[in-house]
Amino acid sequence: MIWCAGYFWAAVRGGCRAPAGTTPDVRRNAGSPSMLKRFFSTDDFIHFGERYGIDYRFPALSSCRASGSEKHIVMQGDVEEMTLASGISLTRSDVRVLQPYESTSLHSCPLYMLVVLEGCVMLSLNGQEYVVRSGMAFCSQLGERQIMNARHQADCRLKTLSLGVGLGDGCQDEILALLLQQWQASGAPTFLWPVPGYLLCGLDSFRHRSGPPLARQMILEGVMLQLLGHCLTLRQQQQVGRAQAASGERRRLENIRRLLEQQPEKDYTLNELAQLAAMSSSSLRSKFRHAYGHSVFDYLRDCRLELARRYLTQGYSVQQAAWMSGYQHATNFSTAFRRRYGIAPSDVRAAC
Fold first, then answer.
1. Architecture label for domain 34-238
2. Domain ranges of the chain
3. What fold is seen in the domain 304-351?
4. CB 337, CB 297: distance < 8 Å
5. Fewest C-beta atoms under 10 Å: which of 151, 276, 318, 351?
């Protein structure tokens, strides 16, 4: 199994090869967890990239590849890996990105899933951008025609869980084999979806490495199968819903999303947005969540926080960034900012 800060690629024997964002010193022991070291330097990334054909780029450390004389620590944290009895490859991470970096790879995995428990991960697949926020999951098939890129910002705390299901010897479970058949039959879609609260609680408990190893693996196996089953069910529901939805309705929803993204500092009410979308408030509420995986105002909050982060990096004070991004109270802004990024807004400004 291999991993990348912020999003972790699960390699399955016979089905998934080492993809983008892989880092060194991976120690794997099938059926039991494996921990990686806490500090990772540019030398670690570059050495592993040369071995596996992965391109790493460090925008803030452009000279690190050429000099080779100074080690720059890129990331700090914990990574745990294990392969479950069914053949699911699993990786848990709790890291802080210290230097921004990017990665690109062409490697394969029939069914890859990333769940973000805290923080935000920015992915690009064949030029299509995906922002995986806390409480959401990203699913896709990776391969030579599905080129994955990732960007990782500095000063971010990331807690993620990823799993991979592959073909061949790594997929012995009959249920997983049927899952892959249905996944392929549906076109192996790429999509984002909100993870239900009860599954988030189960996934979060994975971070607490307590209890007998066998009991822990059995519990994990059940949670992972629930996660995959919910993903398949949700995908089928989405297909039915999209077939029934008119293209004009989708365009109106997209207009609302773009409005929130481009002008997050403005005050909005659900009724006003519903009128712009030419639908009732309840329809906008449910259809927006179905389309984008977040409620209208959760999405607006994330857009405001991202705008405020840019203001902070430009040197504005915490109070100024809060006000210019639509927050009336700096205290509420600081609380929301820390929950989203894992650090205080003052820390971002101090680092500039």
1. Sandwich (2.60)
2. 34-238, 244-297, 304-351
3. Arc Repressor Mutant, subunit A (1.10.10)
4. no
5. 351
**pLDDT tens string 51-93:** 666 788 888 886 554 444 457 888 888 878 788 888 888 888 8
Q: Which residue reads 């693996």 in tokens?
A: 217
Per the CB < 8 A criterion, the answer to whether 130 and 159 are in contact is: no
Per-residue pLDDT reduced to its tens digit, 135-144: 999 999 888 7
- Strands, DSSP E only, in the chain? 34-35, 39-41, 55-57, 73-83, 89-97, 101-105, 109-118, 120-125, 128-133, 136-142, 148-152, 156-165, 191-194
Average model confidence (pLDDT) across the chain: 80
Please give the structure tokens belonging to residue 181: 């058949």
The pLDDT, as a whole number, for residue 270 is 95
Q: Is 63 exposed, middle or buried (0-12, 13-18, 19+ CB in 10 A)?
A: exposed
